[in-house]
Design a protein that fits this description.
Oligomer: single chain
Radius of gyration: 20 Å
Distance between the termini: 22 Å
Number of helices: 9
Helix content: 25-40%
Strand order of the largest sheet: 6-7-8-3-9-10-12-11
Order of helices and strands: EEEHEEHEHHHEHEHEEHHEE
Mean pLDDT: 92
Number of strands: 12
Largest sheet: 8 strands, mixed
Structural class: alpha/beta
């Protein structure tokens, strides 16, 4: 891995709901190198979006450290964080809800520049037109409104909004899950090309492991607010070490229906954060759980260079 641009250590997030304390994230730690695309995968309810929003302080972390290019973000004042935000941008999941229907596309794309006091009005509009061209939309779209575009085009506009500020780091939160299957590949190809051509560092959040394999250099597997496995993409998809990662990967459709494969269908739903299992949080759905799994919370251990696993079983390597 290259020099880390983002370093997260012991990230925690807690909420209080109806008098009950809920822990969403438990001691999350990972690095993302400059120019690297890292996938964050797991079922709904794993805490993926909470991580993405916490590292950008769109929600405030309850504990832990988030360092961006050597600067500790969690201790920055609101004004200091505002000056840092152009370097860190977020692509939202829903292209329909994330664009104001009352603003022209030009106003949407230049809003961040205006807030930051960057460039003149005409220069900001020039940057907006350039960003639209980068996402394969016509520059004259600046005078139109969001409702005039399809879902895929709206997501391209959301990507362009992030690009206008020339960020170094982007969190892409399920950027194609709300789109028709027929246009998902187009947006994924666009994101991959932009990431590579612009040298962007990216945290790519998704529940679709096939998409993550295509676009990401490394993968973080998350379950109920805890990291289960971290590995380079090629190694994870060739030989996952954690039972949860194995189950997720076994569910990916194969292009060859006759090819032999090991199926590990997960039973039941992910537990509630209000009543998590004792010990290993995955044990209630794990086909390989041992009695000790109910008592021991496994540490995330480095099993090989760059490969980490949170499981007490060493016979799965």
């Amino acid at each position: 891995m290259t020099e880390p641009l983002l370093s997260v250590r012991d990230l925690g997030k807690h909420y209080t709901s109806r008098g009950t304390n809920l822990t969403i994230l438990h001691g999350i730690s990972f690095d993302i190198g400059k120019g690297e695309a890292v996938g964050l995968v797991g079922e709904s309810g794993s805490g993926k979006t909470t991580i993405g929003r916490s590292v950008l302080r769109l929600v405030e972390p309850s504990a832990g450290s988030v360092r961006f290019d050597g600067t500790e973000l969690t201790t920055l004042s609101e004004s200091e964080m505002r000056r840092t935000r152009p370097r860190m941008q977020y692509i939202f999941q829903d292209p329909f809800a994330s664009l104001s229907p009352r603003m022209t596309i030009g106003e949407i794309l230049t809003e961040g520049l205006k807030i930051q006091g960057i460039a003149t009005s005409s220069e900001r509009m020039d940057r907006a037109r350039k960003a639209l061209e980068q996402v394969d939309l016509p520059p004259d779209a600046v005078s139109r409104y969001a409702h005039e575009f399809s879902g895929g085009q709206r997501q391209r506009i959301g990507i362009a909004r992030a690009l206008t500020l020339a960020p170094e780091f982007i969190v892409a939160d399920e950027p194609v899950s709300a789109l028709d299957v027929s246009i998902q590949a187009q947006v994924i190809n666009l994101l991959r090309d932009l990431q590579q051509n612009l040298g962007l560092t990216m945290l790519f959040i998704s529940h679709d492991l096939a998409v993550v394999e295509y676009i990401c250099d490394r993968v973080i597997v998350l379950y109920l607010g805890r990291i289960m496995e971290i590995a380079p993409s090629a190694e994870l998809y060739a030989k996952p070490l954690h039972p949860y990662a194995r189950a997720l990967l076994s569910a990916i459709p194969s292009p060859d229906p006759d090819a032999p494969r090991e199926s590990q269908i997960l039973k039941g739903d992910i537990p509630s954060v209000a009543n998590p299992p004792s010990g290993c949080v995955f044990r209630t759905r794990c086909p390989l759980a041992l009695p000790a799994c109910a008592q021991i919370v496994p540490d995330l251990r480095e099993m090989a260079p760059g490969r980490f696993k949170a499981c007490i079983r060493d016979d799965l390597d």
